[in-house]
Structure formats: C-alpha cells, structure tokens
Prior knowledge:
Blueprint: E1 5-20, H1 42-53, E2 69-75, E3 79-88, E4 110-119, E5 127-135, H2 138-150, E6 167-181, E7 185-187, E8 191-192, E9 196-200, E10 207-217, E11 223-232, E12 238-242, E13 246-251, E14 254-259
Antiparallel strand pairs: 1-5, 1-6, 2-5, 3-4, 6-13, 7-12, 8-11, 9-12, 10-11, 13-14
Amino acid sequence: MLESLLSFRRKTLIVFDLFGYFAHFRKHFSTTSSLSYTFPPRTTLCGIIAGILGYNRDEYYEVFSSENCKIGLQIMKSVRRLIQVVNYLMTDEDSIGLFKRTFRWLDKPAQIRLELITADERIPSEVHYRIFFHHEDAELMKSLEDRMFSGKFYYPPSLGTANNLATIRYIGNVKTEFFQPSGGIYVSTVIPLSVVKSIEPEKGLRIHREELVPADFFNDRTLKRIESYIYEEAGKPIKVKIDGIAFKCEIDGVELIGTFM
C-alpha cells in the first residue's frame, strides 16, 4: 500500500455521523414529482454545517466552497426509496402572481408525490451517513468542534427538508493524511466520477451511480459545479484508481481511505 501513496500532507478532519428516520434531498431537475438523491449532496452538507455555526442563508457559499473546505461522505447503511403523497398548501401570498392565481390548488391542498429515503430494514431504523470535514480556517474548525462536542447548534440540522430532523453524533477530531495515490486503493466514501480512472469491481459489491448532484453554488445560489458519484450500496470499499486527492485516517481502530465530494 505505502508505495502507491505519494505527496502526504498531514491534516485534521472533524468526523461526525448523521442519523434520521426519513430524508429527502431533492433532485434539482425533478418537476411534478419530488425525487431524492440517495445521500446528501455536498451543498446540503455545507448548509447543515453552516446552520450549526449560525450562518444565514446565502452567506456561506464562498466560505464553504471546494477551494476552502473538503467534505467526504460515507454511506453507513443500505437505504431504500419510498414514495408518499404529500398535501401542499400555498400560504405565501407575496409570491402569488397573476399566473399562480389561476391554479386550482390555490385554496385547496395540492397532492404531490414525494420520494423519501429510509433505512432498508424491516424494523423502523434510521438512515446513517458519516461525514468527514476539513476547512483551511483553523478558527472555523475550532468553533465547529466546540459546537459538535457540546451539542449546541445554532440551527437544528435536518436531512434535506426541515421536517426531517437529524441527530448528530460527534466522532472526533481525527488526524489524517491527504495524498495523491498512484495505484489502486480501496475507497469507502462516495467517489466523484470526475476523478475515477478505472474501477475494479469485486464479488459481493453493489455499485450504484448518482448523477447530476450539486457540489458548489455561486453567491446568487446558482449552480457552480455538478458532480456524478459512484458508491457501494452499504458503504463497502470499492477498489479504484483515481486522479485526485484522497485521504487516509483511522476510525475506531480501522483504517479508512476516502475521497472528497
């Protein structure tokens, strides 16, 4: 393994787990039915972390851009998709123009199909994601670590929509090494397709692809970068060759290699 790892840089990662019974990470290109990504996009994770620190909407896009911070995500448990019909009611009168006043559901609830993400288990269980976060601003890292340790969040975290509240479990501040791999490595996080040179699938893996996932915003909230990812259904490592930066750390005595979103 060591001969395939080049250009080591020692860093620290804040590692925490996200739990919740339901999640909805809306696909920006879906129309009448609200479809969901399998895992939270990078922009969603930036919003969760910014909310914990007390940033308001539209204040944090540059602070948490890919140039300033790195975020990795590991799926810890298999999930499944569930379609529910949800009643929506127009309540914001300021946003109702002449065209919207012709909608038949202006005064009555509109029934919209909503795709939810939930754990793929027979008994009620929570979805589970593990987040790896690094920021170049040491003060921001210290502030986030303090809030994670104390559990005092400025805004409550949620898994997509506000009614899907999330529970956070702080794992710790973990020493890590950023490196440029020169050979095949086993990656446990979701992997951007833009850095993948080759995949070496192995028996027993279920590898999926998630396309058109938001990764960065401009300050006006328009999309700056979109990525597609591959991941193993239950978060098992995938052997790949990549052209990009990876990280290596140890969690609960187990070595893990990941890539950033």
